[in-house]
Request: fold
Amino acid sequence: MSSVAVQMNQFLMSVEKRAFRMAEMALGNPDDAMDIVQDSMMMLARKYAKRPADQWPPLFFRIVQNKIRDCYRRRASHNRVFAFFNQFRGQDDEALDVAELHASRSSDEPEQRASLDGATLQLQQALEVLPQRQQQAFLLRSWEGLNVAETALAMDCSQGSVKTHYSRAVHRLREMLGEHWP
Amino acid sequence: MSDTNDDKRIRAAVQRDMDDTVSPEIAARLRAAREEAVLVAEKKHRDGGLAWRPLVPLGGVSAAALLAVVLINHSPSTALPVLDDAEMAAAADLELLDELELLAWLDDEVLDAG
Reply:
C-alpha cells in the first residue's frame, strides 16, 4: 500500500464517525447520513488524493457540507411538490421542517438516547435545534477542531460569516444549556 | 488565528460531551466505504505517472496538423516578383537600347533603299 493510501486510510478513520454524526444531526436520518459520508469519501479519494494530506480536512468537510445542502434542497422540493398536491386533497399538511424531523428521529431511537449521559444528551438536543449554518460552524470549529479559515473553506463562506455563525451558536447554546455550559 | 480562552473551554466541553459512537452496523458500513475510497486513492496514485499516456495519439495528430499548416503557409509563392528601383532602371535602359537599335536599323534600311 502506498503512503498516500496509508495517509488516506488514517485520515478517513479519524473523521468518519464525526462526519457521520454531523450529517445525521443535520439531516435526522442515518441512511441519508451514511450515503453522504460514503460519497464524500469517494469524492475526496477521486479528486483530492494528490493534494497534501493537511488540506484534506477542510476539503472533506466541504464535500460533506455541500452534500448535506443538496439533500436539504432535494427535500425542500419534494416537500413543495407534496404540499402542492395536498392542497387539492384538502389536507393541512405543511412541509416537514427540520425541527419535526428531529422530533421524529428522537422518538425513533430511545435506546440510543437512554445510553447517553445527561450532559451529552442535553448538548446533542440543543445542537439539533440550531439553524443549520450555526450547527455546522459550531461543530466544525469545536468538535472537528478546524480553525476559522479551514471552517470558512469547508462551509464555502467568508471567515466573517463563520465567526458570526459560531458566535450565535455559542450564545444560543448558553441560553439553552445554562449552567451545564462552560 | 488563535482561539480565545472561551473557545478553548467550549472545545474541551464539546470533546468531553459529544458522543461520536456509532452502532456496529454503521461502523462496518463506514469501514467498507473507507476501504473502497482508499483503493480509489491507491489506484489514482499508481496511475498518476501514466495519466498522460492516453494523450499520446492526440498529441501526434495535433503535431502533424500543425506541421501541415506551417508547410502550406510557407510554400513558394506563384505571384510575380516585385522589382526594386535599380532593376526597374535596368529594364528601362534595355528598352531604350532596343529602341535605339531599331532606329539605327531603320536608318540603314532607308539608306539602302535610297
